Amino acid sequence: MGAVKKVWFTSDHHFNHKNIIYYAARPFIDINEMNKMLVHQWNLVVDDDDLVIHLGDVGFGDLSILSKLKGSKALMLGNHDQRGKRRIAEHFDYVCKRKAMSFEELLGEFDMGSTFPFDIILSHYPDPELSSGREFVIHGHVHSGPICRSVPRVGGGDSVFLYNVGVDLHGFLPVLASRALRELHVYSQFPNLE
């Protein structure tokens, strides 16, 4: 892999998952239309020399459609990825087998240093206990609700700030990492602004 131009976050595509159309109130007639739009939206913003960090719930069944997605791909497994993780892993350059990983550690897997001034945890789950004392958690799993929110740290102390990169909240587009981190930083400074 050459030099990475941009880093993106995304989550919860649910390729080939018929019921997600209803569960998440997605505006598609069927899975073919949904899959086509998900690929289109991904490739609309991601270039071949970008890195996309997928925070889980990739899809079900035949996932050959993933070969149409641009960029290098890293995966944090989601709850729906557990049964087909070997099949899913074939389509990713890196798969994290833990529930959470620091952003800096993941970038190290691609021989990239972090240029971001924040210590961030990546996880499929919006669980403040996974933060390991860090201030920010970037996650998926939740298909509705706010993009940014703060939750009390277990045991007290400062809040943990969560940012949801699930496709249902972002027009089915990946989120540029620098944008997510900028929005998280602003939100952490002014958490009561809606």
Task: Please describe the structure with a list of short key phrases separated by commas or semicolons.
Purple Acid Phosphatase, chain A, domain 2; single chain; globular; 5-stranded mixed beta sheet; 194 residues; alpha/beta; 5 helices
CATH architecture: 4-Layer Sandwich
State the major sheet. 5 strands, mixed
**What is the count of β-strands?**
10
Count the DSSP helices: 5
In angstroms, what separates the terminal alpha carbons? Answer: 40 Å
N-to-C SSE series? EHHEEHEEHEEEEEH
Textual characterization of the structure:
The chain has 194 residues and is α/β, with parallel strands linked by helices. It has one domain (7-189): Metallo-dependent phosphatases (Purple Acid Phosphatase, chain A, domain 2), CATH 3.60.21. It is 23% helix and 20% strand. The protein has helices at 20-23, 31-45, 85-89, 103-109, 177-189, and strands at residues 7-10, 51-54, 72-76, 94-96, 100-102, 120-123, 136-139, 148-151, 160-164, 175-176. Strands 4-3-2-1-10 form a 5-stranded mixed beta sheet. Helix 3 links the parallel strand 3 (72-76) and strand 4 (94-96). The chain is globular, with a radius of gyration of 16 Å.
